[in-house]
Amino acid sequence: MKRRVVIIGGGVAGMQTALRLHAAGIGSVILEKDSATGGKLRDWHKLFPTFTPASEVLDPLRRAVGAAGIEVRTGAEVVGLDGRGAVLADGTRIDGDAVVVATGFTLFDARIKEEYGYGIYDNVLTSADVERMLNEGTLSMKNGDRPRRIAFLHCVGSRDEKVCQRHCSRVCCVTGVKQAMELKERFPEADVFNFYMDIRMFGSGYEEMYREAQVRHNVHFVRGRISEAAPTIDGRIQIKAEDTLTGRPLRMSVDMLILLVGMRANDDNRRLADSASLTLAPSGFVQPADPFLHSVESGAEGIFCVGTVTAPKNVGETLAEAAAAADAVADYLKNR
Amino acid sequence: MNRRNWTDYQKEIADDRYYYARSCIRQNFFPGSERAFLNILHDDLGRDVLDDPLHTSCTGIGYHSDIVPLETIMTVVARQFSLMNDAGYENFISSCITSFGVYTEILSTWEEFPETEERTRENLFKATGREFRKPKSLAHTSDIVFHFRERIAELAQRRLVNVETGEPLRVVEHIGCHYAKIFPKSGIGGSEFPYVLAGMIESWGGECVDYPERRHCCGFGFRNYLVQANRGYSIANSHKKLESMAPYKPDFIVANCPGCAMFLDKWQYAIAEMEGTTYGQGGRGIPVLTYEEMAGLVLGYDPWELGMQMHQVDVEPLLDKMGVAYDPAAKYLGRNGKFIGQPDTAVVNCCDAIYDIKQ
User: Fold this and answer.
1) If contacts are CB pairs under 8 Å, which of residues 94-133 in chain A contact chain B?
2) Which of A212, B97, B115, B288 has minimal Cβ neighbours within 10 Å of its Cβ?
3) Enclosing domain of residue B199
């Protein structure tokens, strides 16, 4: 009898895991709580460091899932799981021979950092808003004008004890560089400033991108956090910061303030973990059995984890990890 | 400005039976405001407030000036609570923002470090033979006025509206730093977008002005002001705020802190003398009100009964805008009609020098 794996989450991690399992002759069902697969990537414009359109990653995955005949259930919110299946919000139980948790992450709600005025002032946006607006071709100031000065703020909801998000979200730094370059191309007359506490260019090609942003695009990088944003009488945003390299306070009016929001653990990680005796890290992400030899295993019998449910990762890392997870699941099923 | 987020910050505000702790300095700065609060609570809203003559200073100024040690201020605060217990009240309300910050800080310290509460109990007992129970609720008096803002709106004799144009008055609301910047959850609306005064202004027909330096300190800052050599910092902060708000042409400023109302008012004169700059329409300064004065005007109280003749910046232009009837001749008559003395004109650098007070 053909084995079947229950995959919770239909983002890139879940779809890639299903495809790799399919290639190994193992069937799966993807449970996606939203109305479509694709996760956060559906609203993303381009991927760093190559500026590859997100659709060029997502569309082939979706087509392959369809072509492979992998069962996808959308609108299926999982409220509990064990090593042999998952329970949906309507009480339906979906049985399988193993479970892969690929529920991803939650974007930090920038309204919590009230001092930046997101949701209050018109031209304060998040990095996710920028991706969506670039996709829609609507990126401009609220009144339709072209911004003449743009500020990015790094680490909004990352490495911030005040909002209980002590971890680094890793990908926001390079996203800030990527978006600064995209905005500079779209609005070449604009001055673009990135306010950061550290620039963490960990991936292949990232450092080169950071340099290119400065040399070719004249993006300004200021080491210092913005303390507050406030409106000016002409509808701009006044920001205050400290340039910690010169040791001087700084006040500046900008037309657009873009908050690079971090990745945080899903609120329902706790509920899922409690239902299946999974361990959560202090950050709220699911903790794998160990970070080296069993990084896609949860430590609970028959339950595997993949993608950003365990920690912030970029799309490439997630896709590679999905192959590892499928491999681990196949091994597990073979040995049962 | 979309300020819906204030609803995320709510706190329990008692509806009646308050133990009132006065401020050390407000009775000098704005002598009518505390009286107005008591009158509004008693007479207009029918609430029970005990104005207890036995309570003392919370010693907050000494504490923030490093003169009064933490153990001492905790013991003084414990005595205030003990007096409240004796009087049979449970809801402690403070007129002063510094005191409110002190009470909030001490209750929080006792919560987090219970041994400090135990030590305070021992100290209080040794010093006075007293024991105490902590209040059931703690609020600043601006919280209380906020709590009753809709009832006050129902009782209003006039609104925060320019009677000549029908336009809402443009109001700068300034919140004392110790209200919510120390413990954001202790204030209505939190620390970034406090709603305690904005709620009153909106309920009474006015319009809040959001300006770049809205959150900035007024410049009082104990260390800024108490040390004479630092006073330049004090006036520099007030100057920064006044410069920032001036282009919005506010009709008045309202504050919920004794120091803020005092300094934003009095430093306008000093800035005029130093720099020749006068703010406000017609160069007559921007009137600075306490929230009790604002509530009192809305409820139809006489401005001189509210003590508004004690302001540095004359309030008559504002009274005229609001359509408040007042007797110019009575401005400097105190209680029982006694003349309290008239200051020289405070108007500087203004071509028509003295506002044309209605005769």
Assistant:
1) 111, 114-115, 119-121
2) B115
3) 151-337
